[in-house]
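Usage

Read records sequentially. Each one opens with the input sequence:
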Amino acid sequence: MNFQVLKSRIASAFSLTGLALAAAPAYATQPFTVQDIRIEGLQRVEPGTVFAYLPIKKGDTFSDDKASEAIRALYATGFFNDVRIASDGNVVIVHVLERPAVGTIDFAGIHEFDKENLTKALNAVGLSQGRYYDKELVDKSEQELKRQYLTRGYYAAEVTTTVTPIDRNRVALLFSVIEGPNAKIRQINFIGNQVFTSDTLRDEMQLSTPNWFSWYTKNDLYAKDKLTGDLEHVRSYYLNRGYLEFNIESTQVSLTPDRKEMYLKLTLHEGEPYTISSVKLAGNLLNREAELTKLVGVKAGERFSADKLQATTKAIVDKLGEYGYAFATVNAQPEIDQQHHTVGITLQVDPSRRVYVRRINVVGNTRTRDEVVRREMRQFESSWFDSNRLALSKDRINRLGYFTDVDVTTVPVEGTTDEVDIDVKVTEKPTGSITLGAGFSSTDKVILSAGISQDNVFGSGTSLALNVNTATTYRTLTVTQTDPYFTVDGIKRITDVYYRTTYPLYNFTDTSFRIITLGADLKFGIPFSEADTVYFGVGIEQNRLSIDSSTPQSYQDYVAEFGRVSNNVPVTAGWSRDDRDSALVPSRGYYVQANGEVGTPAGGTEYYKADAQTQYYYSFARGFILGLNLQGGYGNGLAGKAYPIFKNYYAGGIGSVRGYEAGSLGPRDATTGDPIGGSRMVVANVEMTFPLPGTGWDRTLRVFTFVDGGNVWGSEGNSTGANGLRYSYGAGLEWISPIGPLKLSLGFPIVKHAGDDYQKFQFQIGTSF
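and closes with the structure output:
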């Protein structure tokens, strides 16, 4: 007989025995005074636990009714499969058979979930190691596992449980899962939509039917939580276009008999679009009506938009928060005219009470010192509450990079009406890292890199890093130490020691010419505002030029005049501002930087150079981003000396003018024809980025089109080609892959010029760009 069936029958028999014993005494006896109580059959349950539940004590009068009451009480604990009570003279003997405990819980056949997640799901329904075995609870656990799979679209998933007795009256539970295929979406149908097409509404959804990129996005796999989110997206699409009466009347999900495909049918009621008839501010406006009115983003005569209304209420609440009203609320009260399809909006403003910040508490920083967090706070103790400064404080703490989560909450102070405490709760993360990387690019071939860094040395906020790069044309060894608060006013100190080997002509005819640079520099960053930082620095470096008879003549001439070794003591100054929403995948904002460098007579190499770069990003439609980049550099010698060739600019390739060989633009040596770089450079890029069709709005996988322009000029100012510039156009693919950012581009010159070196296909992986 199957063990499960046998065990179930035994358990049922035990239960019937217990019920029978509970219903009627197993014996009839004359009442007597209990002199002692003896418990038999215990294995894990403590005798004290049994005595705590037993309604019979020494000195009590024992009777048949007391025996029945005791049996019922012990059964109710759930600890026992069998309870019997007997007597020996004036001693009561309690015989128990303990229920087996759950010793281990394991899973087999699981691929979609982590075991840890499923264990937590079973804990939520009451099944865990150490609990007493309960067949009903195990059945409930099986249903919970099936429910977990249903949320991922696995409608054919089967779960069976194997119960194996083990030592010390315990059982081992094994949940075996046959996952089967997950149901793919075959069709998504909309019923009742007249204003917007079904294709338009499907574009608002994350779920989709199978396409060329479903292997990557997996959006064709049904999941209940995804559908819930998609319904909200569709609802928002209508509400933001004035359809206040919009409603999703029904959602039907049907499954094919083989449980491999699904059909979604959404029945909609669109209604009519509503126009805003009036917008009024009401309530306590604190005599700031003119100021608050400027924040109202919804206007009479416009189509109603839920997003604009929400942005307006948030802006007013934030503005009131800047004046110390930490608990301000703004309620939008609509007055709907269904006959004329208009809506009047009254914004009821309640600033509540103005409060001070009594104390700022930092919790959760087990490693990072309190002062590292507190010095980023722009909201101060014993000052008016300011929501703007509080939000800025949270952003600054997040930008430290020391914490996985930063939560800032406002807590009213008991016994007062005008004070609050600010709790800054942080969750530490490891700030040290050892990196080993490999990559490949069309320019540098194999790239190996390694690094060790600690961004928060001893919890002080100071960082220390060692990095090695073995790119064929550019090899580096760098040690960097950064103290973000060298002074209490927030002046940053950056110290660099570096060793570089550069092969400027590796991709052309010369592999022997190289520049070896050994140096160090000290730089200070002075914050002039929350967004602006000005840098000043000084360095010392030595450049060694290695040449032979095949090296371009211009380099040989420079070595003949200035020698193979050039010492340099550069002084630098710079400024930067970063307003982008993301450094890796920006969609809005701008970035500006400018740097100047002067080689001083103390090093013997006298020159100056200036560099500037600006980037601007604008998202004019969902997922569509226009990016503009302009950068330039200018250098010249001082005191009658030539501009040093080891400071030359180069252009061409990814990150510059695509479609041309990397570093190939600009002046060429008169004897070898090799590009030698120059002292002046301009590069401009216009890039339109949008999601790869069929991938939804995935920001990690995107395509782009581009137009590039730029060139390099020598110190004499002579240009090459029409107007001295080179232009290209093309398209490409960007993917933030698991092994690093990948960028592919296919570029073509707009006008071809004799002597130019073209490279249509270019790519880069494993390195930043």
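Summary fields computed downstream for this record:
- The first strand starts at residue 32 and ends at 33.
- The chain has six domains: 3-98, 101-178, 184-269, 275-350, 356-428, 433-765.
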